[in-house]
Amino acid sequence: MVEVAGHRLGVAADRARRRTGRVTLGVRPEKLHLLTAQPEPADGVNVLGPGRVTDVSFSGVSTQYLVEVPSIGTLTVFAQNMASGPTVSVGSEVWVSWRVEHGFGLDDDPGDTGAPADPDAAEVA
């Protein structure tokens, strides 16, 4: 478990390069899900929010959403354009969720401005 701005987020131990101290968390944008209501806590699922949709970009087979979560920053969510799932617009309040096994932890210093300190970071992503 990792504490991020008051949120407890899970990362699978086998997908974490560092298990103590500062950890950079990541999850691919296509693994994130938008929810229009705060979900009930569920085992194996991380949730951040509430946040606000700041941009919506339709790109044919998918839509890219930018979601600003206070004290976290901007999250990018790619959603396939299918008949199911929420359709939200700029200004909508949303929560972002993902399965714990879809996240990963890196030992890169979040203050780095150059290339990642860990050249093997791709192996866990």
Mean pLDDT: 85
The first-to-last residue Cα distance is: 18 Å
Please name the CATH topology: OB fold (Dihydrolipoamide Acetyltransferase, E2P)
Q: What composes the largest sheet?
A: 5 strands, antiparallel
* Beta-strand proportion: 35-45%
Order of helices and strands: EEEEEEEEE
Low-confidence stretches: 118-125
Fraction of residues in helix: under 10%
Q: Which strand order spans the largest sheet, edge to edge or round the barrel?
A: 4-8-5-6-7
Q: Architecture in CATH?
A: Beta Barrel
Helix-strand category: mainly beta
- What is the count of structural domains? 1
Q: CATH homologous superfamily?
A: Nucleic acid-binding proteins
Protein name: Transport-associated OB type 2 domain-containing protein
Pfam family, one: TOBE_2
Region (Disordered): 105-125
Organism: Pseudolysinimonas kribbensis
What does this protein look like?
It is built from no helices and 9 strands. It is mostly beta strands and 125 residues long. It has a single domain (2-119), classed as Nucleic acid-binding proteins (OB fold (Dihydrolipoamide Acetyltransferase, E2P)). A 5-stranded antiparallel sheet has the order 4-8-5-6-7, with no helix packed on it. A hairpin with a 2-residue loop joins strand 1 and strand 2. Residues 118-125 have low confidence and may be disordered. It comes from Pseudolysinimonas kribbensis.
